[in-house]
């Protein structure tokens, strides 16, 4: 912490919002957070977007939750910590004794600190002995994870933000980067502003703020990007833009779940995926697909792909991810500065705490799997618990977790730092499940009421961001230490402290004996050693001195790793670089190009529900809006969700700007004001997810990807009816 002459103390931290992980300093005066400023030495070069800049306002927000609440009949009433925690512990204990460990679960968040998520994961998997530990990253980046693991044998991107400064071609697909990752988008805009010869291809049904800088905007019928990716690969082969030496040395081919195909099979598979066929399915121009492929594969040019929820939140999200990896692998545009696939992450610590830390129902820490005997044995040894403690069957992934609650099989759920009462698909179904007779719902939250806390039996006041310390890990494998800047408001406590208290009350104090998050971090360092994530050298002291460090970082003093896999012919890479020519994590050292056909979304438009429905985000708000709606400036801008319609659809429906319409799917309906938007694709409707009154997830479908289990928030079929005029 540094004291400025004006009396403000500046404490090093990181933004509380998106997975870009912008470094910043928190300004403290008189024990209160009064300002933030971007960290000029971090990757964001001192820049923050509007959300980051407004962070101080969330600290004293009117909805801050300041003391424990317990349910008495229809009401949540104030209680002491002792009463609330006693109730939580006794209900969990009783449920476990009566119905077994799998009758309870934990639902966490990519917003929790790594040490908090770690304590929960260890307590539930090794203490209570259930694998029912999942979290909102399942709704966000599970398909990206499945894509990386299936393709390279390891999770997480190989590239870094610096690649945005080296790329000549940007392939942005399923991402409104301008609004959802604005500080990264600024880096691309800067390249254009400087007159550099960069091309931007945007593949998105909508014309968005991102497509405004596109040299080519490919608008497609929702879900048909699978056909377009294959058609691009078709063109790359047809026009000799593939790197056959690279393919020979570094690529294997697979179909289904087996790596059992050859290059010739793949070329044969691609024959039918002509640009004309993809254009027919996608409702776009074949020549635009050809242009996109030519730019992507141009010789001597570096290509970076960026994507996020548009690919991930799909019933074939894993395939969509893998098809983008295919394009990089057949062209060899990977593993060198400026050429990389780089999936963007939604939350500040989805990567570090949940994905890397193994806090999903099928995972154990640092790349280990619940279903793998050796991995369980390793973790039992590292955690010093008897052999056989860890259960071999994966727990329930998010949608199944709440379905189990609906069925009465999951009887007690602890929700930390997230808002499933607003963010789950097919929402009313699962809101009912959370209120089901006999179900016990605990919510640890910094704000109240939320659409989840209003359903809870116990609402614990959680410390917020600058009121606690711990590690966040962002998109590019960069870990940051957030230092505590101020004391928690009211009676709020850090989730780390609350979870350690719960562990003690449940008789598992020995498992989580930590007095501080720093002690838990020391234990975490022992778990990653020797794994692909190895950040053993990332001590608390090293993190404190740094502006974020990128793993692998296997020993003290190691500088960290910007690119995990590097090309042997890369002039940026010294000859003795440890990763030189060691490309991939699979046993044969090769990455896999998968043969994946186009498959329609889980629900398609028909005569009854003739319009596509798409959900997403806007610049000023974040997730379910519990924080951003508490900032005056942000609340004034787009806090209310509207139904965005193309002028042709608005005319056909007889509605205009400001009219009220009901958007109905097979699962539910919501009423929105109309916004007529030229950039909306005809035949489709868009609404954002941030509004806690107009709940777009009443409409969405809970179909999930069979591999990643991520729901298809991005596509379903609806009808739109006029309710009233403006
Ligand atoms: Fe925060 Fe993301 Fe904005 Fe950076 S881009 S300031 S991490 S919300």
From TrEMBL:
Domain 4Fe-4S Mo/W bis-MGD-type: residue ranges: 8-63
Look up the record and name the cofactor or cofactors this protein needs: [4Fe-4S] cluster; Mo-bis(molybdopterin guanine dinucleotide)
Going by the entry's taxonomy, the superkingdom of the source organism is recorded as Bacteria
Coiled-coil residue windows: none
Q: Which UniProt keywords apply?
A: 4Fe-4S, Iron, Iron-sulfur, Metal-binding, Molybdenum, Nitrate assimilation, Oxidoreductase, Signal
Report any Pfam family annotated for this entry: TAT_signal
Alphabetical list of InterPro entries matching this protein: Asp_de-COase-like_dom_sf, CT_Nitrate-R-NapA-like, MoPterin_dinucl-bd_dom, Mopterin_OxRdtase, Mopterin_OxRdtase_4Fe-4S_dom, Prok_molybdopt-oxidoreductase, TAT_signal, TAT_signal_bac_arc
Q: Does the keyword Membrane apply?
A: no
PANTHER family linked = PERIPLASMIC NITRATE REDUCTASE, RESPIRATORY NITRATE REDUCTASE
Q: Which family does it belong to?
A: Belongs to the prokaryotic molybdopterin-containing oxidoreductase family. NasA/NapA/NarB subfamily.
Q: What is this protein called?
A: Nitrate reductase catalytic subunit
- Organism of provenance: Anaeromyxobacter paludicola
């Amino acid at each position: 912490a540094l004291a400025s002459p004006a009396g403000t103390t500046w404490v090093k931290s990181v933004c509380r919002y998106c997975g870009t992980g912008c470094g910043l300093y928190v300004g403290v005066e008189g024990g209160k957070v009064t300002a933030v400023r971007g960290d000029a030495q971090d990757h964001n070069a001192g820049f923050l977007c509007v959300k980051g800049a407004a962070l101080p306002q969330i600290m004293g927000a009117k909805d801050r939750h300041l003391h424990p609440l317990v349910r008495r009949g229809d009401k949540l009433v104030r209680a002491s910590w002792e009463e609330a925690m006693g109730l939580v512990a006794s209900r969990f204990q009783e449920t476990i004794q009566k119905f077994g460990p799998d009758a309870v679960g934990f639902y966490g968040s990519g917003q929790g600190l790594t040490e908090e998520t770690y304590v929960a994961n260890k307590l539930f998997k090794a203490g209570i002995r259930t694998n029912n530990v999942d979290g909102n990253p399942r709704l966000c980046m599970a398909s990206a994870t499945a894509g990386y693991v299936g393709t390279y044998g390891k999770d997480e991107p190989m590239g870094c933000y610096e690649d945005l400064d080296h790329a000549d071609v940007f392939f942005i697909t399923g991402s409104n980067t301008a609004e959802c990752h604005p500080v990264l988008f600024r880096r691309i805009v800067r390249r254009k502003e400087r007159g550099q010869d960069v091309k931007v291809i945007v593949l998105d049904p909508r014309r968005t703020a991102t497509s405004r800088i596109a040299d080519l905007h490919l608008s497609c019928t929702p879900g048909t990007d699978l056909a377009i990716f294959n058609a691009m690969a078709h063109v790359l082969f047809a026009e000799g833009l593939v790197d056959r030496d690279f393919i020979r040395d570094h690529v294997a081919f697979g179909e289904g779940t087996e790596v059992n195909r050859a290059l010739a099979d793949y070329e044969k598979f691609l024959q039918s995926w002509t640009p004309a066929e993809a254009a027919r399915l996608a409702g776009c121009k074949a020549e635009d697909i050809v242009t996109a492929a030519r730019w992507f594969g141009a010789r001597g040019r570096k290509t970076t792909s960026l994507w996020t929820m548009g690919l991930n939140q799909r019933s074939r999200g894993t395939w969509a991810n893998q098809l983008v990896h295919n394009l990089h692998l057949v062209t060899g545009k990977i593993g060198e500065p400026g050429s990389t696939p780089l999936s963007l992450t939604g939350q500040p610590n989805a990567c570090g705490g949940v994905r890397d830390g193994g806090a999903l129902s099928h995972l154990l820490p640092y790349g280990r799997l619940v279903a793998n005997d050796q991995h369980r044995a390793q973790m039992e040894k590292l955690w010093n618990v008897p052999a056989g403690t860890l259960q071999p069957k994966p727990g329930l992934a998010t949608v199944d977790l709440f379905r189990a609650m609906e069925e009465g099989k999951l009887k007690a759920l602890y929700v930390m730092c997230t808002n499933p009462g607003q963010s789950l698909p097919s929402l009313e179904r699962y809101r009912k499940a959370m209120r089901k007779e006999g179900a016990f719902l605990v919510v640890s939250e910094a704000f109240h009421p939320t659409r989840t806390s209003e359903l809870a039996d116990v609402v614990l006041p959680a410390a917020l961001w600058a009121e606690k310390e711990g590690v966040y890990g962002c998109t590019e494998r960069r870990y940051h230490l957030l230092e505590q800047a101020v004391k928690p408001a009211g009676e709020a406590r850090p989730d780390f402290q609350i979870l350690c208290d719960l562990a003690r009350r449940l008789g598992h104090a020995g498992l989580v004996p930590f007095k501080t998050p720093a002690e838990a971090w020391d234990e975490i360092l022992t778990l990653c050693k020797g794994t692909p994530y190895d950040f053993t050298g990332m001590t608390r002291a090293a993190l404190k001195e740094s502006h974020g460090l990128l793993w692998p970082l296997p020993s003290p003093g190691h500088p960290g790793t910007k690119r995990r896999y590097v090309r042997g012919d890369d002039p940026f890479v010294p000859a003795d670089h440890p990763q030189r020519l060691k490309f991939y994590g699979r046993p044969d050292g090769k990455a896999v190009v998968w043969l994946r056909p186009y498959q329609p979304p889980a629900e398609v438009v028909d005569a009854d529900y003739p319009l596509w429905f798409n959900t997403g985000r806007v610049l000023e708000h974040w997730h379910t809006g519990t924080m951003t709606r508490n900032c005056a400036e942000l609340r004034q801008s787009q806090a209310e969700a509207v139904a965005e319609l193309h002028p042709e659809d608005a005319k056909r429906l007889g509605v205009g700007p400001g009219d009220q319409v009901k958007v109905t799917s097979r699962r539910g309906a919501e009423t929105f004001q109309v916004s007529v938007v030229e950039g909306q694709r005809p035949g489709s409707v868009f609404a954002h997810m941030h509004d806690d009154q107009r709940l777009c997830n009443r409409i969405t479908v809970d179909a999930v990807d069979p591999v990643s289990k991520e729901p298809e928030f991005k596509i379903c079929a609806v009808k739109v009816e006029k309710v009233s005029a403006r």
